[in-house]
Specification:
heterodimer; A: 113 residues; mainly beta; six-stranded mixed sheet; B: 115 residues; seven-stranded mixed sheet; four-stranded antiparallel sheet; globular
Chain lengths: 113, 115
């Protein structure tokens, strides 16, 4: 059964710092991995989708990497800003061809100005 | 930008009552989903729906739950007889194809409180 773990659970950094969020999953037979952002009381916004054939995906100040063999992904945020404060979730399909996403509990990021 | 819209944003209901949560997925999407998030817990998959039938469902999605696409635009989640433990944020989502290949778009959620 696929399980997703994210560490740390919470992170506080000053503005301008570069930071890394970690995600690990138990079943490496995945088609893709997605990173989402969730603001308090709001829905989820997809940030990056990495296909299993890719090792990295970039969008602006965000870079996500995927190492399927070790069951790990990282989300790198460069030059953090107060507007980056949110909970970041990673998710993988429940099984290789599954339509269900299994989510981690998320990392809650606070960036202070 | 196209978005998934959900109504109501917040509903309070008595235990044992039926609740219908409504969603309008992105217009050219073919796959529809419901997820829920109990306060302070992980986002959990409930059900996926394609071509007017359920593709996949979780253990949470028991006989108390049902989904329907009553017309060309709406996608609903019905909870027949609500329990206290059904209190959660319910998210509708849609994607152009199955999640294995495509970004999934979530609505803002419907917060259900069962009292």
């Amino acid at each position: 059964k696929q399980e997703v773990t994210q560490i740390p659970a919470a992170l506080s950094v000053p503005e301008g710092e570069n930071l890394v969020l970690n995600c690990s999953f138990t079943d490496s037979a995945i088609y893709n991995l997605q990173w989402f952002r969730q603001d308090p009381g709001k829905g989820l916004t997809s940030l990056l989708l990495i296909q299993s054939s890719q090792r990295e995906q970039t969008s602006g100040r965000l870079n996500a990497s995927l190492d399927k063999s070790s069951g790990r992904s990282t989300l790198y945020i460069a030059a953090s800003q107060p507007g980056d404060s949110a909970t970041y979730l990673c998710a993988v399909p429940s099984y290789q061809a599954g339509t269900a996403l299994i989510f981690g509990k998320g990392t809650t990021l606070s960036v202070s100005s | 930008e196209p978005e998934v819209t959900q109504t109501p944003s917040h509903q309070v209901t008595q235990m044992g009552q039926e609740v219908i949560l409504r969603c309008v997925p992105i217009s050219n999407h073919l796959y529809f989903y419901w997820y829920r998030q109990i306060l302070g817990q992980k986002v959990e998959f409930l059900v996926s729906f394609y071509n007017n039938e359920i593709s996949e469902k979780s253990e949470i999605f028991d006989d108390q739950f049902s989904v329907e696409r009553p017309d060309g635009s709406n996608f609903t989640l019905k909870i027949r007889s609500t329990k206290l433990e059904d209190s959660a944020m319910y998210f509708c989502a849609s994607s152009a194809t199955a999640t294995s290949g495509n970004t999934i778009y979530f609505g803002e959620g419907s917060w259900l409180t069962v009292v």
